[in-house]
Write a structure and sequence with these properties.
Oligomer: single chain
Distance between the termini: 36 Å
Largest sheet: 2 strands, antiparallel
Number of helices: 3
Low-confidence stretches: none
Order of helices and strands: HEEHEHE
Radius of gyration: 15 Å
Helix content: 10-25%
Number of strands: 4
Strand content: 5-15%
Shape: globular
């Protein structure tokens, strides 16, 4: 169970998230500050709600624990070997409701 006091490092290293836990947070230095979910701050965002941060990572954890796919790796190992920047790329899946608009959000690949 995650709380606002949970170290971000513990989320990143949670074995349930396999090798993509680091992608839940900015991977490039300088875009994130804080050491716990409660004091997380991000360069491009104001008014981060710590309760919502905890809710989101707990939701993903619970989905994965219940056998759902939450992360889709979009590049093959061969593609990642040719361009190492692609190692920090993929899509997290948040299920929506039927007949409701869908959003796809991509943080992008810095070139």
């Amino acid at each position: 169970m995650y709380t606002k006091q949970t170290p971000i490092r513990d989320v990143i290293e949670d074995s349930l998230f396999e090798n993509y836990g680091q992608l839940l947070f900015p991977v490039d230095p300088g875009y994130m500050n804080g050491s716990t979910l409660g004091d997380l701050s991000l360069t491009w965002y104001n008014n981060i709600n710590p309760d919502k941060t905890v809710e989101i990572v707990q939701f993903l954890h619970d989905q994965k624990e219940n056998g759902y796919t939450i992360f889709y790796d979009i590049y093959s190992e061969e593609e990642k070997q040719r361009d190492v920047r692609k190692r920090n790329t993929g899509l997290f899946f948040f299920p929506g409701k039927e007949k409701v608009p869908t959003a796809i959000v991509n943080a992008g690949l810095r070139m």
